[in-house]
Design a protein that fits this description.
The chain has 424 residues and is α+β, with helices and mostly antiparallel strands. It has 3 domains: 12-197, Globin-like (Orthogonal Bundle); 202-274; 281-418, Heat Shock Protein 90 (2-Layer Sandwich). The chain has 14 helices and 7 strands. The longest helix has 74 residues, at 167-240. The protein starts with 11 loop residues before the first helix and ends in a 6-residue tail after the last strand. Bound molecules: protoporphyrin IX containing FE.
Amino acid sequence: MHVGCHGTSAAPAARFAQELRRAAPTPQALRRRVSVTVVLNSFREKVIVYVGFDESATAALREAHGLIAPHFAEIIDDFYDTIEAHPDARAAITGGAAQIARLKQSLLRWIDELFVGPHDDGYFERRLRIGRVHVQINLPQMYMLTAMDRIRVKTVAALRASPGVDEPRRERMLTAVHQILDIELAIMLESYREDSLAKNRTAERLATIGQFAAGIGHELRNPLGVVESSAFLVSRRLENLKIDDPGIQRHMEKIVTEVQRSGRTINDLLELARNRPPKRRLIDTRAFVLEAVPAAHLPPGVTVNVDVPAGLPIDADPDQLARVLTNLLINAGQAMNGGGDVRVDAVREPAATVLRVRDGGPGIPSELREQVFQALFTTKAKGSGLGLALCRRIAEAHGGTVSLEPSSGGAVFRVTIPDSPPQG
Ligand code: HEM
């Protein structure tokens, strides 16, 4: 079976000569390239050169394609049967049978391209993107290695069993298969490395913020408390004196709202600085959401629709999770300029509860999808840049995640809280 549309007719030797020239660029040529390309090329060049993946390897892979293609379906079935048999790996597949069918097609294209190439910059970019998909779905890195091993074992067995191939050619093909699969692993693991570097950077930023936060937060909390209670006393006094001036009342309300907003920022700062472990217990998701919504003090123009079935449990620290939900709701309100519909829903997944908050705002551009979770990053004039970083930290302390789901409309934040591991 042949899949995809990669032609094998273009002169491979000429193409490879071109590749090799790219694989060993002159220092001047390297300096001329723009930064992103330099990073990508140098990684590609390093792995290709390191494993000795040369013109004869690409030729051997194309030859092996003819022998292995009839076994693709079998290799892919084995790949997914193994995932099915391992609950931790299976948990990464959240879209049921439809997703598995789609993944099988993706893997078919992947394996076809593996043999046919061309193994050029575009190939490396596509493979790195595929690696990032797995990081995003939180697939543990060990399954990337073990899944690659399944593909390797099955492919090698099929090649060894192919009749009518003389031994030196078979050996050449086997070596090329090992080389390309190791290159693939290097690419996949590179995306995990990228991710942990980004997480370390965020952790460093949070640690730095934390050092300042505790001191400043405590200093500001008391005076803000005084402002809030004085505002309350002034309102009471105006009432007693029967002074009903809408202008004064509006200003008093503004003082209270802004003091509360500042209080939330300070609480977020202190919470970031404290980084305390969650105190988890089973709570009823619906009751919890219904209680958290009013605590977000959203403007009157924002309507929150709660679509959470009764009796759905979530295994979390209620205070910390409330902080996540209120931050997401406040964000949603701000994204819609204080008016529109927000929807909160929740579903059970195997061993996890997923909460989603969707707003009717303009959405978040895809290039900012990861940045919005970094501490001190904000696109809003009023935002502190702490809310989403705190949400992510809390979810991660529960072994879970907060991510932005792809959506054509407003932003959809997805919070996944896995159940606590069984004790003992
Ligand atoms: C050698 C290892 C693997 C290869 C070559 C591979 C290949 C792929 C490819 C080509 C895609 C499509 C990416 C895209 O274009 O969006 C994909 C996505 C995905 N893979 Fe893998 N995969 C591997 C390991 C695994 C394992 C072990 C799991 C375990 C569950 C897994 C689960 C998924 C999921 C859930 C998606 C996302 C699909 C979506 O968009 O709905 N993969 N993979």
